[in-house]
Protein backbone atom coordinates (compact mmCIF):
# COMPACT_ATOMS: atom_id res chain seq x y z
CA UNK A 1 0.00 0.00 0.00
CA UNK A 2 1.47 3.34 -0.97
CA UNK A 3 1.74 6.30 1.36
CA UNK A 4 -0.95 8.97 1.56
CA UNK A 5 0.19 12.34 0.11
CA UNK A 6 -0.22 15.24 2.53
CA UNK A 7 0.21 18.12 0.09
CA UNK A 8 2.94 20.66 -0.56
CA UNK A 9 2.56 22.26 2.85
CA UNK A 10 4.37 19.24 4.29
CA UNK A 11 6.84 18.87 1.43
CA UNK A 12 7.39 15.41 0.01
CA UNK A 13 6.32 13.68 3.20
CA UNK A 14 3.74 10.91 3.38
CA UNK A 15 1.90 9.32 6.26
CA UNK A 16 3.70 6.17 7.32
CA UNK A 17 0.91 3.69 6.76
CA UNK A 18 3.34 0.77 6.22
CA UNK A 19 4.73 0.94 9.77
CA UNK A 20 8.28 1.74 8.69
CA UNK A 21 8.78 4.28 11.49
CA UNK A 22 9.02 3.08 15.08
CA UNK A 23 10.58 6.26 16.48
CA UNK A 24 11.67 9.70 15.36
CA UNK A 25 14.76 9.87 13.18
CA UNK A 26 16.27 7.99 10.27
CA UNK A 27 14.84 4.66 9.08
CA UNK A 28 15.22 2.37 6.06
CA UNK A 29 12.18 1.99 3.85
CA UNK A 30 13.91 -0.76 1.89
CA UNK A 31 17.44 -1.76 0.97
CA UNK A 32 18.02 1.32 -1.18
CA UNK A 33 15.89 4.14 0.30
CA UNK A 34 16.36 6.01 3.56
CA UNK A 35 13.68 8.20 5.14
CA UNK A 36 13.33 10.55 8.08
CA UNK A 37 10.50 9.82 10.52
CA UNK A 38 8.77 12.91 11.93
CA UNK A 39 6.34 12.36 14.84
CA UNK A 40 2.74 13.48 14.32
CA UNK A 41 -0.09 13.58 16.87
CA UNK A 42 -1.05 10.18 15.47
CA UNK A 43 1.66 8.18 13.74
CA UNK A 44 4.62 9.47 11.74
CA UNK A 45 5.38 11.55 8.69
CA UNK A 46 7.80 9.76 6.37
CA UNK A 47 10.08 12.16 4.49
CA UNK A 48 12.48 10.96 1.73
CA UNK A 49 16.07 11.31 2.89
CA UNK A 50 18.50 9.49 0.59
CA UNK A 51 18.68 6.99 -2.28
CA UNK A 52 21.66 4.67 -1.95
CA UNK A 53 23.91 4.20 -4.97
CA UNK A 54 27.37 2.98 -6.00
CA UNK A 55 26.84 -0.41 -4.39
CA UNK A 56 25.76 0.98 -1.03
CA UNK A 57 22.60 -0.08 0.79
CA UNK A 58 20.48 1.47 3.52
CA UNK A 59 21.82 0.57 6.95
CA UNK A 60 19.84 2.01 9.87
CA UNK A 61 22.50 0.80 12.29
CA UNK A 62 24.96 3.10 10.51
CA UNK A 63 22.48 5.96 10.13
CA UNK A 64 22.22 5.98 6.33
CA UNK A 65 23.65 4.49 3.16
CA UNK A 66 26.65 2.28 3.85
CA UNK A 67 28.99 -0.12 2.11
CA UNK A 68 28.28 -2.56 4.95
CA UNK A 69 24.93 -4.16 4.19
CA UNK A 70 22.60 -5.55 6.84
CA UNK A 71 22.01 -9.32 6.43
CA UNK A 72 18.67 -9.00 4.63
CA UNK A 73 20.20 -6.66 2.01
CA UNK A 74 23.31 -8.70 1.22
CA UNK A 75 23.60 -10.27 -2.26
CA UNK A 76 23.80 -13.78 -0.80
CA UNK A 77 20.44 -13.25 0.91
CA UNK A 78 18.77 -12.26 -2.34
CA UNK A 79 20.11 -15.37 -4.12
CA UNK A 80 19.44 -17.91 -1.35
CA UNK A 81 16.52 -20.29 -1.78
CA UNK A 82 15.50 -22.55 1.06
CA UNK A 83 15.11 -26.20 0.06
CA UNK A 84 12.49 -28.26 1.89
CA UNK A 85 14.46 -31.34 2.89
CA UNK A 86 12.19 -31.97 5.91
CA UNK A 87 8.66 -31.25 7.02
CA UNK A 88 8.58 -28.45 9.55
CA UNK A 89 9.04 -24.73 10.15
CA UNK A 90 12.52 -23.34 9.55
CA UNK A 91 14.18 -19.95 9.92
CA UNK A 92 15.80 -18.47 6.85
CA UNK A 93 19.57 -18.88 6.87
CA UNK A 94 20.21 -15.21 6.03
CA UNK A 95 17.14 -13.04 6.76
CA UNK A 96 16.12 -12.86 10.43
CA UNK A 97 12.55 -11.80 9.52
CA UNK A 98 11.91 -14.66 7.15
CA UNK A 99 10.81 -18.23 7.87
CA UNK A 100 9.86 -21.23 5.76
CA UNK A 101 7.01 -23.71 6.09
CA UNK A 102 7.56 -27.12 4.54
CA UNK A 103 4.39 -29.24 4.44
CA UNK A 104 3.82 -32.73 3.02
CA UNK A 105 2.61 -32.54 -0.56
CA UNK A 106 -1.07 -33.51 -0.33
CA UNK A 107 -2.02 -36.58 -2.34
CA UNK A 108 1.54 -37.42 -3.29
CA UNK A 109 3.52 -40.44 -2.10
CA UNK A 110 6.20 -40.23 0.54
CA UNK A 111 9.57 -39.12 -0.71
CA UNK A 112 8.32 -36.24 -2.84
CA UNK A 113 9.58 -32.74 -1.97
CA UNK A 114 7.50 -30.91 0.62
CA UNK A 115 5.35 -27.96 -0.36
CA UNK A 116 7.23 -24.74 0.34
CA UNK A 117 5.80 -21.49 1.62
CA UNK A 118 7.89 -18.54 2.79
CA UNK A 119 6.64 -15.81 5.12
CA UNK A 120 7.92 -12.61 6.69
CA UNK A 121 7.47 -11.40 10.25
CA UNK A 122 5.89 -7.96 10.70
CA UNK A 123 8.27 -5.03 10.46
CA UNK A 124 10.57 -4.51 13.45
CA UNK A 125 10.28 -8.16 14.49
CA UNK A 126 12.46 -11.18 13.80
CA UNK A 127 11.53 -14.84 13.76
CA UNK A 128 12.34 -16.89 16.87
CA UNK A 129 12.79 -20.53 15.73
CA UNK A 130 12.77 -21.91 19.27
CA UNK A 131 9.16 -20.81 19.84
CA UNK A 132 7.99 -20.49 16.20
CA UNK A 133 6.98 -16.89 16.85
CA UNK A 134 7.90 -13.43 15.57
CA UNK A 135 8.98 -12.36 19.05
CA UNK A 136 12.46 -10.88 18.55
CA UNK A 137 12.36 -7.08 18.59
CA UNK A 138 14.79 -5.77 15.96
CA UNK A 139 17.11 -2.89 16.69
CA UNK A 140 16.41 -0.05 14.22
CA UNK A 141 13.97 -2.33 12.40
CA UNK A 142 16.74 -4.32 10.68
CA UNK A 143 18.62 -7.56 11.31
CA UNK A 144 21.89 -7.31 13.21
CA UNK A 145 23.03 -10.89 12.69
CA UNK A 146 22.28 -13.80 10.40
CA UNK A 147 20.18 -16.62 11.90
CA UNK A 148 22.85 -19.12 10.74
CA UNK A 149 26.63 -18.62 10.92
CA UNK A 150 28.58 -18.24 7.67
CA UNK A 151 29.80 -21.51 6.21
CA UNK A 152 33.56 -21.99 6.12
CA UNK A 153 33.83 -25.57 4.84
CA UNK A 154 31.72 -28.34 3.32
CA UNK A 155 30.15 -30.57 5.97
CA UNK A 156 30.41 -28.00 8.75
CA UNK A 157 27.50 -28.34 11.15
CA UNK A 158 26.20 -26.94 14.41
CA UNK A 159 23.08 -25.84 16.34
CA UNK A 160 21.41 -22.54 15.56
CA UNK A 161 22.32 -19.80 18.05
CA UNK A 162 18.66 -19.11 18.89
CA UNK A 163 17.31 -22.67 18.79
CA UNK A 164 19.08 -25.85 19.97
CA UNK A 165 16.35 -27.86 18.22
CA UNK A 166 17.53 -26.67 14.81
CA UNK A 167 20.89 -27.25 13.20
CA UNK A 168 22.63 -26.40 9.96
CA UNK A 169 24.83 -28.34 7.55
CA UNK A 170 27.08 -26.54 5.06
CA UNK A 171 26.46 -27.95 1.58
CA UNK A 172 27.98 -27.24 -1.82
CA UNK A 173 25.30 -26.70 -4.48
CA UNK A 174 26.01 -25.39 -7.97
CA UNK A 175 29.46 -24.42 -6.84
CA UNK A 176 28.21 -22.28 -3.95
CA UNK A 177 28.74 -23.08 -0.28
CA UNK A 178 25.65 -22.36 1.79
CA UNK A 179 23.91 -23.64 4.95
CA UNK A 180 20.86 -25.91 4.89
CA UNK A 181 18.69 -25.75 8.02
CA UNK A 182 17.27 -28.93 9.57
CA UNK A 183 15.27 -29.72 12.70
CA UNK A 184 15.79 -32.55 15.17
CA UNK A 185 12.96 -35.11 15.48
CA UNK A 186 10.27 -34.53 18.09
CA UNK A 187 11.90 -31.54 19.77
CA UNK A 188 15.26 -33.15 20.45
CA UNK A 189 18.41 -31.07 20.86
CA UNK A 190 21.39 -30.87 18.56
CA UNK A 191 24.81 -30.94 20.15
CA UNK A 192 28.11 -32.75 19.68
CA UNK A 193 27.16 -33.51 16.09
CA UNK A 194 23.90 -35.38 16.73
CA UNK A 195 20.24 -34.92 17.69
CA UNK A 196 19.73 -36.08 21.27
CA UNK A 197 16.65 -36.38 23.52
CA UNK A 198 18.14 -34.17 26.26
CA UNK A 199 19.86 -30.76 26.13
CA UNK A 200 23.55 -30.44 26.80
CA UNK A 201 23.82 -30.46 30.57
CA UNK A 202 26.27 -29.28 33.18
CA UNK A 203 27.07 -30.88 36.52
CA UNK A 204 24.45 -30.75 39.27
CA UNK A 205 24.34 -27.77 41.64
CA UNK A 206 25.62 -29.73 44.65
CA UNK A 207 28.52 -31.20 42.70
CA UNK A 208 29.36 -27.78 41.22
CA UNK A 209 29.46 -26.14 44.66
CA UNK A 210 31.72 -28.88 46.02
CA UNK A 211 34.09 -28.57 43.07
CA UNK A 212 34.21 -24.79 43.26
CA UNK A 213 34.85 -24.78 47.03
CA UNK A 214 37.70 -27.22 46.59
CA UNK A 215 39.30 -25.01 43.95
CA UNK A 216 38.86 -21.87 46.06
CA UNK A 217 40.46 -23.59 49.07
CA UNK A 218 43.46 -24.43 46.94
CA UNK A 219 43.81 -20.86 45.68
CA UNK A 220 42.32 -21.42 42.24
CA UNK A 221 39.53 -19.51 40.52
CA UNK A 222 36.27 -21.44 40.43
CA UNK A 223 35.27 -22.93 37.08
CA UNK A 224 32.18 -24.70 35.77
CA UNK A 225 32.77 -28.23 34.57
CA UNK A 226 30.73 -29.54 31.65
CA UNK A 227 29.67 -33.17 31.71
CA UNK A 228 28.38 -34.86 28.57
CA UNK A 229 25.83 -37.71 28.76
CA UNK A 230 27.20 -41.17 28.12
CA UNK A 231 24.54 -42.01 25.54
CA UNK A 232 26.15 -43.49 22.44
CA UNK A 233 25.91 -41.58 19.15
CA UNK A 234 23.62 -44.18 17.61
CA UNK A 235 21.29 -44.27 20.62
CA UNK A 236 21.35 -40.50 20.99
CA UNK A 237 20.53 -39.81 17.36
CA UNK A 238 17.13 -41.47 17.29
CA UNK A 239 14.94 -43.73 19.40
CA UNK A 240 11.81 -45.50 18.22
CA UNK A 241 10.35 -45.16 21.71
CA UNK A 242 10.47 -41.36 21.59
CA UNK A 243 7.91 -41.11 18.79
CA UNK A 244 5.20 -42.50 21.05
CA UNK A 245 5.75 -39.67 23.54
CA UNK A 246 5.12 -36.80 21.11
CA UNK A 247 2.35 -36.14 18.63
CA UNK A 248 3.24 -37.32 15.15
CA UNK A 249 2.40 -33.92 13.65
CA UNK A 250 4.30 -31.79 16.18
CA UNK A 251 6.15 -29.90 13.44
CA UNK A 252 3.67 -30.03 10.56
CA UNK A 253 3.82 -26.66 8.87
CA UNK A 254 0.42 -26.98 7.21
CA UNK A 255 -1.21 -26.17 10.56
CA UNK A 256 0.56 -22.84 10.90
CA UNK A 257 -1.77 -19.83 10.61
CA UNK A 258 -0.40 -17.40 8.01
CA UNK A 259 -3.29 -14.94 8.11
CA UNK A 260 -1.15 -12.24 9.77
CA UNK A 261 1.99 -12.76 7.71
CA UNK A 262 3.19 -11.80 4.27
CA UNK A 263 3.78 -14.96 2.26
CA UNK A 264 5.48 -15.69 -1.04
CA UNK A 265 4.57 -19.35 -1.68
CA UNK A 266 7.41 -19.61 -4.20
CA UNK A 267 5.55 -17.39 -6.68
CA UNK A 268 6.00 -13.80 -7.82
CA UNK A 269 4.27 -11.66 -5.17
CA UNK A 270 1.65 -9.07 -5.98
CA UNK A 271 2.60 -5.42 -5.49
CA UNK A 272 0.54 -5.05 -2.32
CA UNK A 273 3.69 -4.50 -0.27
CA UNK A 274 5.55 -2.01 -2.39
CA UNK A 275 8.12 0.12 -0.60
CA UNK A 276 9.16 -2.78 1.63
CA UNK A 277 12.54 -4.46 2.01
CA UNK A 278 11.26 -7.20 -0.22
CA UNK A 279 10.21 -5.08 -3.18
CA UNK A 280 12.90 -2.41 -3.38
CA UNK A 281 10.36 -0.27 -5.26
CA UNK A 282 10.97 3.46 -5.46
CA UNK A 283 8.53 5.54 -3.48
CA UNK A 284 8.96 8.88 -5.18
Automatic annotation (TrEMBL):
Coiled coil: none annotated. Residues 81-145 form the Chitin-binding type-2 domain. One of its GO terms (molecular function) is chitin binding. One of its GO terms (cellular component) is extracellular region. This is Chitin-binding type-2 domain-containing protein. It comes from Papilio xuthus.
Amino acid sequence: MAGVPLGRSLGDGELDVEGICAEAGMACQNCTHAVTCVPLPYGYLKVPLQVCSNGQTCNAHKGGCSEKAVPECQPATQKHKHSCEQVGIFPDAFDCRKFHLCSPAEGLPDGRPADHRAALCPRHYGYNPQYAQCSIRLLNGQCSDKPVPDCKSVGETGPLPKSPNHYYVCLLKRGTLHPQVFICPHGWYFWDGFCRPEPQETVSTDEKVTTENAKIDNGFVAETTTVKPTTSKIEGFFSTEKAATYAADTFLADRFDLSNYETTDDVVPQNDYANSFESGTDFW
